[in-house]
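Researcher: I'd like a candidate sequence for this fold, 236 residues long. If you have to choose between options at a position, lean toward the conservative one.
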C-alpha cells in the first residue's frame, strides 16, 4: 500500500471511530485550558445585529488572505440537519498542525517529516514518516468553497458580538440558497457560517479562535507517551 493511500485510510478510520465514540448528539462543549481562552457563545446565532445596510462594506473586502495567518487555533462545532458533530480542536503553526478529539490527537508535522497518532486511553503514540498531508476544514478552506461570482451578492447586514469578538454579518439569499457569514472584524476571518441549500441545513462554528498566540510547545508530542515507531513498516 503506498504512503498517501495508507495515511488517508488511517485518518478517515480514526476520525470515524472518534466521532462514534463521542456520540453524535451529545453536548461536547468543555472548559479545557487550551489556547482558545474565550468563553464563546453557543452555536445558535445571535440576531441582535447592529446594522447599517447603507454602509459600503463588501464581503470580499472584509476577508483577509490566509497567507498572513500561519499561527491559529480554534474549536470546530458543526451540525448537519440538526445532528451535531463532536467538537474537535485544531492547532496550526507554520505548516504543522494538531487535531484533537476526546479520544485521540493527530499530529502532522511537515517540518519534521513526521506524523503521530496519540491515543489518550492507552497513552500510546504511534509514529510514522509523513510524505503528504490532507486538508482539514478551516475558516480558510470554507472561503475557498464559496464561488467567486457569489461575492457581489453577499450583503452586509451590520455588526454584532459573537464569542467575545466583534463580527461583521453578511447574508446571501438567492436561487434556493441561504447563507449567513460572521467575519471576525479584527482579523477578517470567518468564525461562523450557516448554509441552507436544497434539503441540507449546516452550521460551522470556529469557536474560541485565536491568532498568533501558539508556540512550538503547543504542538509537541506527549513526552510521557509510550512510543511505537512504524517507520520500518512503511513503504517510502
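Model: Candidate sequence:
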Amino acid at each position: 500500500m503506498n504512503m498517501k493511500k495508507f495515511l488517508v485510510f488511517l485518518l478517515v478510520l480514526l476520525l470515524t471511530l472518534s466521532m462514534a465514540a463521542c456520540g453524535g448528539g451529545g453536548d461536547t462543549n468543555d472548559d479545557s485550558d487550551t489556547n482558545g481562552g474565550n468563553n464563546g457563545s453557543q452555536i445558535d446565532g445571535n440576531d441582535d445585529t447592529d446594522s447599517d445596510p447603507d454602509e459600503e462594506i463588501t464581503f470580499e473586502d472584509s476577508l483577509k488572505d490566509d497567507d498572513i495567518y500561519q499561527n491559529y487555533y480554534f474549536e470546530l462545532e458543526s451540525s448537519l440537519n440538526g445532528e451535531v458533530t463532536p467538537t474537535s480542536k485544531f492547532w496550526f503553526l507554520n505548516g504543522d498542525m494538531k487535531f484533537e478529539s476526546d479520544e485521540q490527537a493527530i499530529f502532522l508535522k511537515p517540518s519534521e517529516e513526521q506524523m503521530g497518532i496519540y491515543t489518550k486511553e492507552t497513552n500510546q503514540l504511534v509514529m510514522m514518516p509523513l510524505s503528504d498531508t490532507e486538508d482539514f476544514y478551516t475558516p480558510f478552506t470554507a472561503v475557498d468553497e464559496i464561488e467567486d461570482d457569489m461575492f457581489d451578492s453577499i450583503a452586509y447586514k451590520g455588526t454584532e458580538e459573537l464569542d467575545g469578538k466583534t463580527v461583521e454579518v453578511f447574508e446571501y439569499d438567492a436561487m434556493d440558497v441561504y447563507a449567513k457569514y460572521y467575519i471576525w472584524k479584527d482579523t477578517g476571518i470567518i468564525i461562523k457560517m450557516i448554509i441552507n441549500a436544497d434539503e441540507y441545513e449546516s452550521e460551522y462554528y470556529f469557536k474560541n479562535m485565536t491568532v498568533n498566540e501558539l508556540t512550538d510547545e503547543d504542538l509537541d508530542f506527549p513526552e510521557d507517551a509510550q512510543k511505537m515507531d512504524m517507520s520500518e513498516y512503511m513503504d517510502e
